[in-house]
Input
Amino acid sequence: MSLKYILPALAATQAVFAASDCSDTKIKTQSDADGINSCSTIKGDITIDKSYSGDLSLSGIEKITGGLKCSQGANVSSITASSLTSIGKVFDLEGLTTLTLLDFAELDSVGGINWDALPKLQSLSFAKGVTKAGDVSITNTGLTDLNGIQLQTVGLFSIQNNRDLKTININNLKNATDSISFSGNYDTLEVNFPNLGTGKGMTFQNISAVSLPSLETLTGQLGFWGTKFETFSAPNLTKTGDLIFKNNDKLSNISMPVLKTVDGGFTIARDDDLNIISLSSLQRVNGAIDFSGTFNKVSLGALKDVAGAFNMQSTHGNFSCSDFKKLKNEDVIKGKFSCNATNDNPTTANGTSGTGSGTSSGSGSSSTSSGAAFFNGANVPVVGIAAVFGALASML
Output
């Protein structure tokens, strides 16, 4: 065959191999990684085999169009990618039980984060900071903070069972397109979202502080269970979905001065240090109101419409049920009505105890005049593990 035909054929073959080298790759040894480190872009996934052992360096790669994945790589001790700026799909690490270091100095964009069972990973070396991500789920790690996660927008944001996680300060986050949830982390965890203005839903359990100074609207649930803070303040919140405060034994003050609409049910129960409930701007609750506990005063002076039922019970309330009965007579309250300011054993709408030290009574959920369940969905959290804990809490 003529040389003029052989050379183009060899060149074409070399191009095919080069393209293949920079596509989907499985890494079993550092030599496998060295084979793709000349690629600036990997067009596909990088999968770290579970047999990999020791430190892994991806030194020349700048972009992965697919995901970076490793499952059950129990002997992977560190992953370094000094030039990598973006991961197109999910950064997925599960069961890397000896991993101590993630060093991604230039990484700022990922399709998503799914980290689970990384007990030795205590901190992140993300110098530039990840500002763009889809869903983020971080579970069962040894992280003490989330420094290096500097999101501006996020989808799902789920932080669960990170027993050493003490502080979260997502300074730049302004919008969340899916639910945010925290549970089972360090019992003095402080959560700060200083610039978050809008979101879908937020649930918090076992935290010692939460700061939401810029929050204006939520389309989904806002719920708190078993928290350790004394005061909750949302000074700019005007609208939320279901609103729930349950089993927060140190909560003594709720401040939501411009809240006008609860687009769902509104539940307060077993918050035994809460003495005053004052929501001076609240006009509409598009579900049921279910308040039970030891509170003394209740102020809902702007209330114009409650689509569901109304349950108000306290052990030593200094409020007048006749004021709320008037709202029922004027058809402001549409559903079933119950009010008792001096009930030795106040109960929630579904008959469980309304105080932390009380006992259950009653026979379950009542119905509104429209036949909807009295609790109207407000007693059960809906996000991740918080759904389980909230459901259990409602049965205590």
Q: What stands out?
A: The chain has two domains: 25-126, 214-396. The helical segments are 3-21, 30-34, 321-329, 384-394. Residues 1-20, 359-396 have pLDDT under 50 and may be disordered. Residues 325 and 337 are 8 Å apart (CA to CA).
